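Troubleshooting entry. Yesterday's outputs looked truncated, so today I'm pasting the complete records for two proteins to confirm everything comes through intact. If either block looks cut off, that's the bug. Protein one:
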Amino acid sequence: MPRGANLPAIAAFNETVVLDAVRRSTDGLSRVELAAGTGLSAQTVTNVTRRLLRQGLIREAGKQSEGSPGKPRTILRLDPAGAYAVGVHLDPTVIACVLLDLEGGIVAHVHRPSPPDGDAVTTLAATLDAIHEVLATPGVDAERVIGVGVAAPGPIDADTGVVVRPPLIPGWNDFHLRDELAAATGLPALVAKDVTCAAVAERWHDPAGASRDYAFVYYGTGVGVGFVLGGEVYTGSTDNAGDVGHVLVDPGGALCTCGRRGCYGESVRPYRLVMQGLWSGVVTAPEGVVVPDGEDVHLDVETVDALFTRLTAAADAGDERARAIVDRSIRNSAFYISNLSALLDLDRVVYGGPSWARVERRYLDLLPRRMAEIDMEILTHPVRIESSAVGEDVAAVGAAALVLDGTFSPRVGLR
C-alpha cells in the first residue's frame, strides 16, 4: 500500500493515497485501518476522509465490530457515482466505448463499426457519436465525468497523443487523436497503446494484487502483448512496449511486411487465417473476389471479420481443414508464449480482445498442451492460460481506468 506523509503541502497527495487504499480493499476500510496501512496519523486520516466524503468520492458503509469492547468502526468504501471516465478502443474492425464509474464498473457501453477505409476523420466522427451516447446514460452526472481515455494501435507518441504510422491502419498516420478528442468533447483526453490499456484493465480487476507478474495477449485485428511486472503495468521507455509481431515462430511461414517469413503477428492474425481458409476452401470469397491459390488479396476489415467468424465456427464444428488452420496458429503461439514466459519468469498468461472469443475454446484446450510438449529447457515451470476477466471491451475499459488512475492514484505513472 502506498504510504502518505503528514505534511499540509501534500494534502492532495494524501487524498489519493487514502482513496487508492480504499479502492484496493475488498470490503472497505475503517479509519483506524487506513492510518495503519498508509502511515498517516489518525488526525490526518480523519481530515482526508472528511474531504473525500464531502467530495462524494467515498461513502460510509455501515459499522463493523472488531470483536472487542468499544465503539464499532465505520467502514469507508468508494462511492461509485463519485466520478466517471470514458474509455474508447479504436480497432480497425470495431469502435468500442465504455463509461466506467469510480469502482471500475461498466455503467454503459456501445459499439460502432469502424469505417472500412480506416479514414481518421470518419473514425473520429463515429467515436464522438459513441461517446455522446454513453454520456447520455440516465442517472450519470455529467459534471462528474473527468476525462476520456483512448486505446489505439501502436506505435503512439504518448506525449503528444499522436498515433504514429500504425501498420494495419495507414489512414491514421500522425493523427493528433488526443487533441481532436479533447477539443470536440471539452474533456481532458489521453491516448495509450491498446495492449497497455488491456493490461491496465486486467490489473484494475485484480486490485488486491493477487497476480504480480503476467502477460496479457491482445488478440484483435493484430496481436500485441501487455505486461504486468512486479504488480505494475510496464510500458517501456516510450510507452510502446508489447510490439511482438516480428518475433520469428514459423520459419518458412507466411511472408510478413518486414520481408521475413513466419513472424508471430503475421502467423496468427485473423487475416492470415482467413486467407488460409480461402485457399483451402473452408470459407468462400465474397462475390466478385478472385483468390488465386497461395496469393494474398485485399479484403476490407468487415469482410475479414465475417470470414474469420465462419472459419472459427467451422473449426468448432469439427471441420478438419479449419481445425488445422487454427491449430497451426496455436502451435506458433505456444512457441512464442513459452519463450516469453521463460524470459520473464511468468506463470500466467491472459488472453483477450475483440477477436479472442471466436478462438477461445480451442486455444484454452490446446495451447497448454502444446506448451507442455515444448522442450523443458525452454519452459521449466507450468504456465496458466486463461481468458480475460474483463471481457471483450478490455482495452476500452483499460483506457477509462487510466483516466481514473491518473486522477486518483498516488503513483507517479506507469513504468
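Protein two, checking that the full record survives here as well:
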Amino acid sequence: MTQPILSAQLRAALDLAERGIPVLPLREGKGPMGNCRACRKNACGGRPNMKTPGPCTCAAPCHAWAAATTDSAVLTSAAWTPAWRQAAAVAYHPGGTGLTVVDLDNADAIAWARQNLPTTRTVPSTRGEHWIYLGTMSSPNAVRPGVDIKSLMSYARWLGPGTGTMGPLPDVVRALAVKEPTAARRASSPVTVTAPPGGGQCPHRSPAYLERGIAMAEQRIEEAPDGIHRTVYRMFLAVLSAHGRCGCLTEVHIKRLFTAAQGRGESLRHCEDAWSNAAAALGM
C-alpha cells in the first residue's frame, strides 16, 4: 500500500511530538486554525475565551493552544489532514512541556533582555529572538515594548532548538506579569484597618467566617506555583473586599497575611504597597 506523502510541517510536528513537545498547525500569518463548524464562536463551550486549561476535546485542531498534542494518531488523523494541508508553520505549547518563552520582537527588546535577564537558550525569530527558560507561568502580552510571554495557555511558533544552556525561569520574568493599580498610597507599618465612619456592623456573625477567609488566603499565597506578586495582591484585595469595611480585621490577621507573603520571598515594603494598593482600589 502506498504511504501518504507527509507535508514538511507535519513531519516536523511528528518529530517534535515524539520528543514530548505538544504541537499544532499554524496557518499563514502565524495564527491558529479556526474552530470547526461545531465549535465556531465556542458554541461547544469547550474552551470559552481560550482560558480553560487542558487539551481540546474536539477531533479537529480547534481552540488554538488547547489543540496542541503529542499524539501522532491525532496529528495524522483525517480530522487534522485539512489543517496540515493549509499549514504554513508548526507551533508548540511551551507551558505543556514545562517552558516559558520570552518573545523579543525587535532589537530594542533584545537589548533590554541582554541587560536585564539571565542568559538562557535563545532562538532567532523573524524580527527578534525567543529566550526560553525552564518553568511555567501565565502568558501576558505586551509586558513591555516588544516583549510578550508565552507559557501556560499559549502557543509559540517552533523556530528550532536554539543555542545555549536553558536556565531556570527567573523572578524578573515572573514579575513582568504583575500589574497592580498605579494609584497607590504607601501603608505605614504596622498596618491597621478600622471600621468605617458610623461604626459599620459586622455581618459575618461568626469569627469562623473570618478565620476561614484568612486561612484560605494564607494557603493560596503559600501554594502559588508562580506569579507570587500578583497572588499576594489578589489575596489582599479579596480579604479587604470581604472584611475591610466592618472592622473585623485586626493587626494579628494582617500580620498573618504578611508573614505568608514574606515566606514566599516578598519584602515588607512590597507587602505594604500591595495592601495599600488593594485598599485604594476598593476606595478605602
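Both blocks look complete. Sanity check on protein two: The longest strand covers residues 99-104.
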